[in-house]
Amino acid sequence: MTDSWVNSAEILGSDLPLELSGTGNRRALLMDALREAVRSGRLAPGTRLPPYRSLAADLGLARNTVADAYAELVAEGWLAARQGSGTRVAERAAPVTPVHRPRTPERVARPVHDLVQGQPDPSVFPRTAWLASARRALAVAPDDAFGPGDPHGRPELRRALAGYLARVRGVRASPDRIVLCSGAAHGLRLLAEVVGGPWAAEAYGLPFHRELLASHGVGTRPLGVDADGARVDGLTRRDRAVLLTPAHQFPTGGPLHPARRAAVVDWARATGGLVVEDDYDGEFRYDRQPVGAVQGLDPEHVVLVGSVSKSLSPALRIGWMVLPQRLVAPVVAAKGEREQFSSATEQLTLADFIESGAYDRQVRRMRQRHRRRRDQLVAALHARAPHVRVTGIAAGLHAVVELPPGTERSAVRAAAWQGLAVEGLGDYLHPGAEHASRGRRASRAHRAGAADNADAVRAAGPADASLVPHRDGLVVGYATPAESAYPEALDALCRSLPPAAPLATPPAATPASAPPPPPAAP
C-alpha cells in the first residue's frame, strides 16, 4: 500500500491532516495513525470522529476495515462509543507529555499516572448489561421494594448471592445468613460494634481498616506475615476476632496455607473467637487453581465479608456479610430499623445481573484484562529493571515490586517526580509490628543470657508470630489506568526504580612473580 494522505477537517475541525503511511495491513495502519493523532494531541479528548462509512469512503478502504479499527480502539480505551452519540476520542486518552527534567513533588498537583492499588478502571463498567438488568428487575419488582427497606437486605439479592458464593467461593450459607451492607468497611463497623475487641490482624493490611476498628474502640494486634500468609499460631485467647485476607493476602500476595486455614478454625472453635474473612479480590486469580473461602470450613465461626467494589465499581456501595446464625440478629439490629445505606433498586439490579450470568461474564472479562496488565508489568520490569523481584502476581489487582533495603522512600519520591502515584509497602505495615519485632527480640535475647545476641534473635524469630521484619517495596496497582495510559505509567514506574547495586570489585590478582604467603602460625 502506498502512502496515503487524508484531509481530516471532519475529524479535527481544522486542516491538520491524518497520515496513513507504510505498507501492510490497512486496519493496522489506520489504528496506528489514529493512536498517534490522539497521543500527540491533534485529536483532543471528546472530539467526534466521522461515521466509519464516511471515513472508509475518504480513505478508499472497506467499511468493515474502518469499523473493526474503531471497535478495537474502543476496546483499548483510545476511543469511546455510545449509541446515538457516535464515536469520540476517550476523555481519559489525553496526551501525556514525557517528563524530561526532574520535578519536585510540590510541582505535581495531580499525578499524571495512577498505579495506586484498589480501584478498577471506571471506563470498563458494563453500562449496557447493567442497564438491561435494571430494566428487567424494575419491571418485576414487588411493591414493597419501594418502601422503607429491610436492614437485612433485599431477599432477591440474598438468594442470588447464596447461590453464587456457594458455586464460586465454596461458601455454605442460606439467604437468611446473609446481611447486606454498603461495602466491606461498613461490614467491619457493624462487626466491631457487635463483637467488641481486641482483634488480631495481619501485620500487612489496609491502614483504613485498622483505623476504622480503632474508631469503634477495637484495638488490633499484629500477626506476622510470611510466604504462607498470616502466622495464625500467634493468636491467643484474649483475641475476640482475627481479620484475615486468606484468598490473597493483602498486600503481600499469596493464599493462606491449608494447614493455617485449619489451624485458625481450630482456634476459633477452642476459644469462641471469630474469624473475619475479608474476601478481597478472591475472584481474580491467574496462575493458580481457585482457593475456596475459609467460611466453608466452619460457617458458625467464620464471617465472610465481600463486595462488588473490585469486580464492578465502588460507586455501587453494595457489600455483604455471610454470618454465623448467632450474629445475624445482632448485626441487623446494629444496622437499624430501616435500610439506609444501599439502594433497593441497585440491589434488585445486582440480583438480576448475577442470575442472568452477566456478573460471571464481567468477572471473566476483567480477569483476562487484569492478567494482560500484570503480564505487561512483569515484562516491562524484566526488560528495564531485571534486578528487582515482582511478587504476589498469581492473583489480585496489584503486585509488589521488592526493592533493595533502604530504597523504598526514595523510590516513592522519584515516582512523584515522574508524576506517578504509587505507594510503598511500608505504608501498609501495622504500626505495632516493627516495635514488637524490636522489643520482643531484645527481651528474649536478654532472658536467654546468650553471649551472641544475633543467634538469640534468630532463634526467637520463628517462634514469635508477631515478629515482622520490614521489607522495602512498592505496591503497584495495575487495574486503574485506561489502556492508552498504561504504557506511559509503566514507563514512569521503571524510571522511578533504584538502579542495580554495583558489583563488588574483585580482589587484585597476586602477581606471578610474588613470593608465596608465609604459612599460618600453628
Overall, the morphology is globular
Biggest pleated sheet: 7 strands, mixed
Overall average pLDDT: 81
Helix content range: 25-40%
Please state roughly what percent of the residues sit in beta strands, choosing from under 5%, 5-15%, 15-25%, 25-35%, 35-45% or over 45%: 5-15%
Strand order of the largest sheet: 6-14-13-12-11-7-8
For the record, give the distance between the C-alpha atoms at the N and C termini, rounded to a whole number.
Answer: 85 Å
Spatial extent as radius of gyration: 28 Å
What structural category characterises the helix and strand content? alpha/beta
Number of helices: 16
DSSP E strands, number = 19
Uncertain residue segments: 1-16, 93-108, 436-466, 509-522
Write the layout of secondary structure elements.
Elements: E1 4-6, H1 9-12, E2 18-20, H2 26-40, H3 52-59, H4 63-76, E3 79-82, E4 86-89, E5 113-114, H5 127-140, H6 155-169, E6 178-181, H7 184-195, E7 199-202, H8 207-215, E8 220-223, E9 225-226, E10 229-230, E11 241-244, H9 258-271, E12 274-278, E13 302-307, E14 319-322, H10 325-335, H11 344-355, H12 358-384, E15 389-391, E16 398-402, H13 408-417, E17 420-421, E18 423-424, H14 431-448, H15 453-460, E19 473-477, H16 486-496
Helix pairs in contact: 2-4, 3-4, 5-11, 6-11, 7-10, 12-16, 13-16, 14-15
